[in-house]
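re: that chain from earlier
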Amino acid sequence: MTTADYVALALFVFLWVALNWITGSASFFSRTSLTLAMNERRREWIYNSLRRDLKMIDTQILSGLQNGTGFFASTSIFAIGSCFALLGATDKINAFFSDMPFIFNSGRAAFEIKVAGLACLFGYAFFKFGWAYRLFNYCTILFGSLPMREEALLDPPGAERAAERVVRMNIIAARNFNAGLRAIFLSIGYLGWFLSPYVFMATTVFIIVVLIRRQFFSDARLAIMDGDMP
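^ sequence. v structure.
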């Protein structure tokens, strides 16, 4: 491991933490992030469900959220297994890298550390997806406790409190899901470390720029914005 490796790893961690903060609890260039804007749409969805008795479409949406989370959790497990397979083929991969030009081969120990870091990245994603799956399950249970339309009209404050519980749980579940998804995206940038620390820094910055663009400057963000939201 060289100084450039440590610098690249520190940059990766710093940008990852900064991205989580920017997208989840701050504005960027006075623009609301896609994540925060979607939180408001989640609130609108749950409150609108109080006005209808037939809630099959709502349960289908919740089921879709949970199934998508389960898919990514399973994918993370397979990725972790692939990392252990890489550790078993360290000598072959090092020999392959040694014969390739323009690739910085830092030796067996450094390669194993990089693979272990990649496994930790996927492990983090798995725990985030797993927890999000559980929280979406809780959200479904809380949604089932919502009053019917006539009951909500008789007790608006109680209906609002019940809806707000569902909203908060849904937002927390989505926050964990998004954290796992960001880890998956950043793992693509992490792969650059196997070529060289400089490629690692470049790919990390590239992934961060792409994710920031999607959060603050994408067509998807514009599609869900209200006129009063920056």
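The mean pLDDT is 85.
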